[in-house]
Amino acid sequence: MKAFVINKYSKNGGLQLAEMPVPEVKDNDVLVDVYAAGVNLLDSKIKTGEFKLILPYKMPLILGHDVAGVIVKVGKKVKKFKISDEVYARPADYRIGTFAEFIAIDENDVALKPKNLSMEEAASIPLVALTAWQVLVEKAQIKEGQKVFIQAGSGGVGTIAIQLAKHFGAIVATTASAKSFDLLNELGTDLIIDYKNSDFENRLNNYDVVLNSQDQKTLEKSLEILKSGGKLISISGPPTPDFAKEINAPWFVKMILSLLSFGIRKKAKNKNVEYSFLFMKANGDQLDKLTQLIESGKIKPVLDKVFPFEKTNEALAHVESGRSKGKVVIRIK
Ligand SMILES: NC(=O)c1ccc[n+]([C@@H]2O[C@H](COP(=O)([O-])OP(=O)(O)OC[C@H]3O[C@@H](n4cnc5c(N)ncnc54)[C@H](OP(=O)(O)O)[C@@H]3O)[C@@H](O)[C@H]2O)c1
């Protein structure tokens, strides 16, 4: 099968188009004929080696963390799915590889594709929507009336996180540049701050939850807007020793993460704010819940651009530009 791979970590080079074997289907796996694949910054971060401490991959590696497609084979123990089901998924770490014609995925990480979405729309959902769910529902346990600040509302995570927070009755503030204001109003955002000419830390206070997806400076400023007992959840680092424990990282990784996060953990403690780092996980059951919200119109995909398979490198470069509005998707079939 055709696939886009890396043979080594590299900051500059693109992905190579290669001929790879169709993946082996284990007992609990489904083999998916890939119709569309979502592109994420994580693909780029893995390509450059930025994640090699946390996710040490073997080469050659097929990149790609989001898929929508059709099941063409099922493992002996698969219970939930059958051949010809239309599905979508964020395959688990170490089993990624959606920039390819086929991928084998554990059935527990898969869900039926929302009926009202095209393959391209469905492929835009899993990684960012599971991230939003795991931050807002699992970790923050947001409640009606709580104030939530979601940075970069026009991004892949932001567009879905805003809709999810609104569904749970939160009051949502976000940052964006002026060209995205219409989109963010449509998504139901309560307060939009133009990050290019206004400082959010001077406009927001007494917040319950912050979803941080930006740099260290933004992370520290986010502390200022939280109330005592509030939650600062970062998806862009720095990871904590708790996270190292969660992924069973070796002692030296735990030590490095402890040093990297020392400053923010100390500042958060002084303010009585809970700081945590979250790295999203594959989860078919949560994806099923998101499917219900999508089919009932509560959450809509936001697509920036669809690229053909042969332009996978252009798609990745577009995401790396940091300017996409919603998601970038590759059409494979
Ligand atoms: N830990 C996890 O599990 C996890 C999961 C998903 C994502 N992430 C990370 O979270 C970050 C965001 O991911 P994403 O997929 O949402 O990114 P994205 O879609 O590439 O974000 C692009 C958007 O960010 C906006 N933006 C850029 N700089 C901004 C700023 N200073 N303030 C406010 N908005 C800004 C841009 O708007 P303008 O064009 O108007 O500037 C653009 O619409 C990335 O670092 C990603 O790796 C982590």
Detailed description of the structure:
- It is a single chain.
- By secondary structure, the protein is α/β, with parallel strands linked by helices.
- Helix content is 32%, strand content 26%.
- The chain contains 11 helices and 16 strands.
- The protein has helices at 41-48, 119-123, 126-139, 156-167, 181-186, 200-203, 216-225, 241-246, 251-270, 284-295, 312-320, and strands at 2-6, 16-19, 29-39, 61-62, 67-74, 86-89, 102-106, 110-112, 147-150, 171-176, 191-194, 207-212, 226-234, 274-277, 303-308, 327-331.
- The strands form 3 sheets. Strands 3, 5, 6, 7, 8, 15 and 16 form a 7-stranded mixed beta sheet that branches.
- Strand 10 (171-176), helix 5 (181-186) and strand 11 (191-194) form a beta-alpha-beta unit.
- The radius of gyration is 19 Å and the shape is globular.
- The model has no long low-confidence stretch (mean pLDDT 97).
- It binds NADP nicotinamide-adenine-dinucleotide phosphate.
**Gyration radius from CA atoms, angstroms:** 19 Å
SSE string, helix = H, strand = E? EEEHEEEEEHHEHEHEHEHEHHEHEHE
Q: Between the first and last Cα atoms, what is the distance in angstroms?
A: 13 Å
Report on the biggest sheet: 7 strands, mixed
Shape: globular
Query: With helices defined by DSSP (H or I, 4 residues minimum), what is the helix count?
Result: 11
Q: Assign a percent range to the helix content.
A: 25-40%
Give the averaged pLDDT, no decimals.
97
* Total strand segments: 16
Q: How much strand content do the residues show?
A: 25-35%
Uncertain runs are none
User: Which kinds of small molecule does this entry bind, naming each only once?
Assistant: NADP nicotinamide-adenine-dinucleotide phosphate
